Amino acid sequence: MNFRCALIASPALVLVPALALAQANETRPIQLDPVIVEGQGGELSGIINTNGYVATSGRSATKTDTPLLETPQSISTVTQTQLEQRKPQSLLEALSYTPGARVGTYGFDPRYDAFTIRGIDVTHNAVFRDGLRQIGSPNGLFRLEPYGVEAITVLRGPASSIYGASTSAGIIDIISKRPTEVPFREVEVQTGSFGRKQMNFDLSGPINPEKTLFYRLTGLVRDARTEISAIKDDRVFIAPALTWKPDDATKLTILGEYMDSTTGGTAAYVNEYGPYMDSHGNILSKVTRATKVFGGDRRYNDFRQQQARIGYEFEHKFNDVFTLRQRARFSQLGNNQQYVYVGTPGLTRENTEGFSVDTALESRFRTGPVDHTLLTGIDLSRLSYKSKEAYGGVPLGYNPPFLWRTSQTQTLVGAYVQDQMKWQNWRLTAGLRHDWLDSKFEAGAAGAAPTESKQTDGQLTGRAALSYVTDFGLAPYVSYGTSFVPNSGTVLAGGVAVPTTGEQVEAGVKYDIPGYNASLRAAVFNIRQENGVVYEVVNGLNRQVQIDLRSSGFEVEGVASLANGLSVQASYSYNDARIKKLTPETVGNRLTSVPYHMASLWLDYTVQEGPVKGFGIGGGVRYVGSSLGDNLNRAILDNEARTFVDASVRYDLENLDRRLKGMLVQVSATNLLDEDKQNCTGGFCYFDEGRKVIASLRYRW
């Protein structure tokens, strides 16, 4: 059976047969109140504790309540304060000021959150939600609504020793909004670029007088277009949550979500191809690679996705030694993607289901002079999807007949143990995990018997890290970790892709500046990954291949929220990603679209007193260095360096009139200067997303 891959403006599609090839061308501590999610007062016992832009502790890195200064791994956090002040509209926008995160690889494409961390593609296998793997199929990736998010933790480096299937670059843990013990209510209306109309609401607080039950209900409705008029940005989102806390030792939180969103099935621009050089290698002309001609047709371009999830988090503290935690979630996702190429309609329908459960026992005890936090656990995840492909045979506006189908079930079971040891100023973390994989993949023409491929595999992964935490807030560390992740729905010329494995060595230093709500972080790293899946475009055909690579570099980040109203987030990263095994002509080449240099700076200031008290202004600059447009490193496809400017202004209207207490007006803009250059990845070229402005009026009471 000959499989080929549809070329789209993103890597997130399953390999499909030739019928879908048509789609191819396409000075004092801050005085701010701390934001504590699931915390007990001021204790460092929550899922994540933050103060303005600064995160102080969290569970994402170790699954235990550990101060980030004492966690010997590179971690960045996008806090609730940052989300409110920048108003990102996607996961990519939320991560755009995070060191090591390369967003915009595929230009403007609202369909998928495709991005890399430390040069490694993390689109499919690194996104977690509330500490559980977020299941996804080749064309069924959950969309993120930032308004429903409390914070985002970026854990760089292998985390498979406790999380199982995840990339060598680390994980992105998205933390959902949870019920609050103090009543909280807000409504907001928005308008902006491309006819945007949106209304948000967020309500929370106790339900009963005894304050043992708490609720939260978050939602929005949006009607909007995008810079490509054929692409919608419509959305209905609602996320209910309920917490039962009968006593200080027991807590049960139920988290739900439903979202119905529509965007564009085709988001690519037409690419022009031609002879670039003569027989002597001289450049004849720099023809346009990506034109401003939209590659689809607005009459048949809706990509509707309906997604839902329901789950719970349970915690019971038996005594000062033992605490039991369990998380579980069921997820479901349905896609109906219309697209058009050269006047011919195509259709992809995909239904995805997944279940994940993780049970862990935390034991705190002492052996001689050493304190231990021992974590033992077992988790299970199951993915199941069915996909149908259709193309051609009918006039535009009608659904074509289904000609091809694929399906897969994938089950992973993992058992893990981790010990965090503390002796004087030393911190040693060591962990091991074993995963068992069982997978069955089927593909074939509609109505015919499918071809079946099975995989059974087992893999041991681990992590070891050592740090020294000084009394003045400085903590150097070293770490080593390995990773393992199976590739869902990936079919190559030789069959189903084998799991991807990797390892990383990292050394770094963390510094919490005494007397200030500020922290500095720096790290150097070296990653080796085997059998990673990447996309290449050859003669207009997007194909998946497996690749060995090496990625090394360093990162530095600083965040602060000061008492004078000034907040800052600054970062710089250097990344050299090289191909170790792909094709003979690419070995040693730089990996496509991974720049050596990236840097960002965001400053925000809120006036604390005087006639304009409550006025806030923020601005940011994001620099993305030059990169290469394909793995052959052809100069004609070089991507120029570019700089993006973002901005935000807001005003608390209570300072005009006390009767307006709780009302805030805000205007935010991304890519304010409308930087719109081409970016080529894997041999196909795209355009950056242009300027976008959002104005909002919010009322809290």
Structure description:
- By secondary structure, the protein is mostly beta strands.
- It has a single domain (4-700), classed as TonB-dependent receptor, beta-barrel domain (Maltoporin, Chain A).
- The protein has a 22-stranded antiparallel barrel. It has a five-stranded mixed beta sheet with strand order 7-13-14-11-12.
- β11 (127-129) and β12 (132-133) form a beta hairpin.
- The radius of gyration is 25 Å and the shape is globular.
- Residues 68-171 form the TonB-dependent receptor plug domain.
Summarize the structure.
The chain is mainly beta and 701 residues long.
| Number of domain modules | 1
The CATH H-level superfamily is TonB-dependent receptor, beta-barrel domain
Biggest sheet descriptor = 22 strands, antiparallel, barrel
Instruction: Return the average pLDDT rounded to an integer.
Output: 90
How far the N terminus sits from the C terminus, by CA atoms, comes to 62 Å
CATH class: Mainly Beta
Query: Which oligomeric state applies?
Result: single chain
Instruction: Report the C-alpha radius of gyration, rounded.
Output: 25 Å
Instruction: Name the CATH architecture.
Output: Beta Barrel
CATH third-tier fold name: Maltoporin, Chain A
- Poorly predicted regions: 1-45
| Helical run tally | 3
How many strand units? 42
Q: Identify the overall geometry.
A: globular
- Tell me the structural class: mainly beta
Q: Classify the helix fraction into a percent range.
A: under 10%
